[in-house]
Every structure is written in C-alpha cells, then in structure tokens.
Amino acid sequence: MLPCSRKRLNLPPIGFRKESTGSFTLGLGEDPLSLEKRLACTAGTRPSESHESASTIHPVCGGAGSRLVAGVMLNHPWTVETLIEGGALQASVSLARNDEEVVLIDSGYPRQEKQLLDALAQHGLTARSVTHVVNTHLHFDHSQNNHLFSRARIVCSRREFEWMTDLCDRLTSDSLTLEQIYKYYPELKSFEDDPKVVWAMVKVVQRFWSVERLGRREQFLWLEDWVSPDGMKAIHTPGHVPFHYSYSFETRAGAVLVAGDAMVTRGDADQNTMTFPPTRRAEYEETKKKLLGFEGTIVPGHDALFTLTALKHEEARRAEK
User: Fold this and answer.
1) What is the pLDDT of residues 275-284, one digit of tens each?
2) Which whole-number Å values give the CA distances from 71 to 24, 32, 67, 75, 250, in the listed order?
3) Cβ-based burial of 194 (10 A; exposed 0-12, middle 13-18, buried ≥19)
4) What domains can you pick out in the chain, each with its CATH number?
5) How confident is the model at residue 194 (pLDDT cuts 50, 70, 90)?
C-alpha cells in the first residue's frame, strides 16, 4: 500500500496571519487582471548561503523595494519563465522570480526529477535557491517533486490537501468500490459501461502519488492563510478539482497567469491529454471561459504558453485552410 495516509504527515497548525485579499474567488464579471491592494510581507532576512544547511527553510518573504510597472508601484516586479513546457504526458512547471523570491509553480511527475533540476541549472539556480514551491493542486503530475526543495516553503490550499489525501486513502483501501470513487469524481460515472477505465486511473494514482514527496510538514504554508508577495495573486479556479488555484504575476511586460489544470490546454484538445478528468465538467468549463478573458500571457497545465491574441490568430489561420 502506498504511503498516502494524512495522519502520517501530521498537518501543521495554522499560525499565519489571514488576509482576505491573499486569495480570492474569481467571480462572474470580475477582471482577473485588476490590481487589488498589494499586501505588505512580514519582514525577514534570508540567511547567507555560507551558513545555510540543507534543512534550513527560507523565510516567508523578503524585504522592501519598488518599481513602476504598468503605472502601478510594485515591490519587486516578477519575471515568469517556463522550466518544463506542458504536453500530453507532462504538466507545466513555471519559474517566477523577483529581487527577493524564487517561486516554483508546480513540480511535475516523480520521473521528471533530473529534467527539473537541469532546467533550474540552465537558469543559474539549484534546488536550494527556491524559496517557495506553490502547487496549483496536488495531482501527482503537478506535485511529486516538491520534496526536492528542502529549503523552500510549500504553499497549497489546506482544503485541497485534505481532499487529495482523503481521496488517496480511499484509492489505496483494500475495500475500494466504484461508488467511493464516484464520490470524489462524479464525472467518472460516464464510464459506467466500461469500469476498466476507472480502475486504470486508480492504478496510475497508486503507482505515482505519495504524500512524502509533497515535502516535510514544517515546510507547509496553507494558501488560505498565506500573505502572498507583492505582485502575485492567487485565484480560486474550481472544476478540475474543487480547491484548485491559479496564480497571476505582474511583470514589466504585462500580466502572466499560471493556470494549472484550470485550463489544461490552450484550445479544445483537453481530451488528447493524459490527465485527470474534471471533478465537475460544467464548473471546469465555466472557469476556463473566465480565464480566457485574461489579457496577458497564459500558461496552461499541459500546453505551451500563449496569449489570447495569438490564439485567435491561430484559429483564424486554421479556419482559412
């Protein structure tokens, strides 16, 4: 049986200051690009590299400083780059940096350890350089290399963690039934005529998902209580899983949205991607529709980054052929 029990991780207590603007739900008609009041991070000076051990964890956030971006004064504007480009068989992994923070958004499959570390090295970084690993959600293709970053804070939704570990406990139970699976994934009932499809998904989860690979308990910061760095925003984007979050960043070149699996691909080819089905298809489609109104660069969960303008041009060219 896989080590998926939530009890074995011993969830850390919530002890961080809660801010209502630290994360929010993207409501109907809301502009995901709107710049809300920026949050001031608690002070903390990072220990020097020469005095850090492998187990030293970065402070929650850094000091002050500001630059003018798009007419708004921001502390430490971000740069966002792709470390691993998403595809049919792998999830996107993004790198966001400013003067103080080095943030990894999702961490990929277990088999991508070397690929991920090599990609960081190409940017002059090591695993020790990463200050935060932020998970859009905890499916194994997005979270199973968290453990490589022993000095990073690991940020995810507490409710997502509880939902996923409860699901994992079920999937590794000797008495697992289809009805128990449908409790978490009601959309899978569409495969009732061929339950082999459902059981195949279960076997994949049993093979790849391990709670230990999510990181040590003292590394965790619950998103619901985290004060995000200046210029970074968490957006609740449900549908793929109930407590999925996407992340927007303000950069000198404009806004960037790391969507995760709230938008699996840039178009309508989700069915060609080897990933989990939505827990709620209608909710997923509604979320994706809202995110397609984002006027900036979008990084899907399993596709190359794009802008809405470029996507429309691609669609127009295809229509002409």
Assistant:
1) 888 999 999 9
2) 23, 17, 10, 13, 11
3) exposed
4) 6-11+53-320 (3.60.15.10)
5) confident
